[in-house]
Amino acid sequence: MKKKLKDVAKIKFCLSQKVISDEKHKIITPINLLENNVIDNFVFDDRVRVNKDTKVHKGDILIKRVSPSFVNYIDEIDEDTYASGNLIIISAVSVESKYLAYILNKEISKITQSLSGAKIPSIGRNDLEEIEVPILSIKRQKAIGDLWHKSIEVYKLKTRLNELEFIKVKGILSELVNGGEQNVN
User: Fold this and answer.
1) Domain annotation covers residue 125
2) Where is the Type I restriction modification DNA specificity domain (predicted)?
3) Is 185 a member of any domain?
4) What is the CB neighbour count within 10 angstroms for residue 115?
5) 171 assigned to some structural domain
6) Distance spanning both ends of the chain, measured CA to CA
7) Strand 25-28 to strand 81-83: parallel, antiparallel, or no bridges (unpaired)?
8) pLDDT of residue 119
9) pLDDT at 84
10) Of the residues 22, 38, 74, 85, which has the maximum number of CB atoms within 10 A of its CB?
C-alpha cells in the first residue's frame, strides 16, 4: 500500500519576512544545508521575523526548495532554531521520520531532474504532496530509516577521516622539506 506525502506528514513552506527586530534568532538558511545530511552552520539574524511554524524540531526533515535540493534529517537541534525562506519543513505524522527522510531523499532527486529545464528549478507544494510513500510495518520503516541514517553517518566519518589523513600527510611533507635530512626515517 502507498499513501501520498500529504497524508502521512505536515508540509510547511518557510517564507522569509525581512524586518528589523530587537532580538537575534538562530536561523537555518538554504545555503547552510549541504548534501549527505550536513548542516554547515547557523546564522544569528535580527532581520528575519520568525514564527512558531518555522521552528525546527528533532525528527523534522528540511528540504532546500531551490535546486540543488537536499534532504536533511534533523537528529539534533538547538532549542529555538528556525528555518528561513526557501526551506521546506516536513514533519512525519504517521510514518517513521528517518524512513520518510530516506524516501524523500530518493524522490526529491527525481523531481529536481524533471525540473532541469527550468531557469531556477524549485520544488512546489504539488510536487511534494503527490510523492507516494510505501506504507510498511513500523518495525520495517524503523530498520530502513536507521540503515539509511547510519550509512550517511558512516559516509561523513569516512570523509572526515580522509580530510584528516590529507592534513597529516601535508604536515609530514612540510616537516620533511623544512626539517632537512635528519628527520627522514
Assistant:
1) yes
2) 2-161
3) no
4) 16
5) yes
6) 64
7) parallel
8) 60
9) 83
10) 74
In a domain, 41, yes or no: yes
* pLDDT in the model for residue 109: 78
Alpha helix segments (H runs only) across the chain: 5-8, 97-114, 125-129, 138-179
**CA–CA distance, 116 with 109 (Å, rounded to integer):** 11
Looking at this protein, which amino acid is placed at residue 91?
S
pLDDT at 46: 55
- In angstroms, the CA 140 to CA 154 distance is 21
Provide the number of structural domains found in the chain.
1
| CATH code, domain carrying 24 | 3.90.220.20
For the whole model, what pTM was predicted? 0.79
The cell for 92 is 512525519
Q: Please, what are the averages of pLDDT over each run of 10 residues along the chain (185 residues)?
A: 96 70 75 76 63 87 82 86 88 96 89 64 84 96 95 88 93 85 53
β strands within 106-161, DSSP E = 132-134
At 47, which helix (H) or strand (E)?
none
User: What pLDDT, on the 0 to 100 scale, is given for residue 12?
Assistant: 92
- Match 529545464 to its residue by C-alpha cell: 117
* pLDDT given at position 5: 95
Contacts of 121 (CB under 8 A, 6+ apart): 66, 67, 112, 115
Place of cell 544545508: 33
